[in-house]
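Me: I hope this is not a bother. Any chance you could explain this protein sequence and its structure tokens? It all follows right here:
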Amino acid sequence: MDNFMNTFKKTLAYTVVGIAFLSLAGCNIVPRWAQESETTEVPRPVSSERITRTALNPDYLQPSMAAFTLGPGDWIEVEVLGEEATRTVLPVGPDGKIYYHVMPGISVWGLTPMEARSKLEESLTGFYRNAPNMSVSLHRVGSKQVWLLGRFVEPGIYPMAGPMTLLEGISKAGGPASTPVYALLNDGGSATFGGGTDESADLERAFLVRQGELLPIDFKRLVREGDMSQNVYLEPDDLIYLPSALSQEVHVLGAVNRPRAVPHTRRSTLATAIAAAGGTEIEAHLSQVAVVRGGLNDPEIILMDYRSIVRGTATDILLEPGDIVYVPLTPYRTLTRYMDLILTTFARTVGVNAGARALSRDEGIGISIPAGQ
């Protein structure tokens, strides 16, 4: 019995000493689960930077010195001088040829009206005792045009018979459209209308695409402030787009399964927007997913480690209407080039869909611009 009591006293003493030691040590002995949580991947902080785009090429402010040349879709008026009955209006066909009376097709594609007259006179020489004097004038332009789409008063495809500035093009389409001022409720509520009207075009996100490239034009400075340093001369097939200032969409582009614009709500996050676009592609580079916010000339780019968001070790980010979400395939090399890639992809995508809607009543076409740099 004495031996049992001695053993019990020793065990109790060791326990008391152990508890006292832990108290003095500040409980520095951490459970295994806590040790493991300390070594878990630390969420990457959100990186945000505002980028100013490159200056506009001053050559764009000078009119082209090239003469107008004919092409498919143009119409010309042809006449043998002195023979009013020969006057006729001819289309330049899809093959670039005109068909005058019984003559075989005469190719005028790429010729000026003056050059087309000389060629026509030469072709008619065998039908007249003396070489005829011809008159060839441009009747209607169809081969050269500019696309003025989006929130214009009269959006459409406009012919371009000669030098035309951006302001002249905007004027042809009636200028930016105006609508009654109202507030949209994002979560399925009805619209609340107020008095007056406001310009419904978002000039800060307006753009001009030329041969697949986005020109760094500040539409707000041009239209609102009359800054002629932004008034470039247009070229055939330029696409000018004025987005709606009332748009409640987020554009999700790059290495996602269904690049598209998705509706924005007050609860829209990076993860929900990417999910609405079908999720990311297998090869996507998820540690540098970008959110571009603000006007196209001095946008803010926010870089997110999307993999950490998916794992739950980083906080998701709330999106705003008009944000551009871009998932890359490869790491970016320089931030400015990454921004140029995102904005060019955005402009091409929106421009192609707007052009498709201008040519048909369809809702547009889905396209995927390569996500690599």
Remarks:
- The two ends are 84 Å apart (CA to CA).
- The chain is about 25% helix and 25% strand.
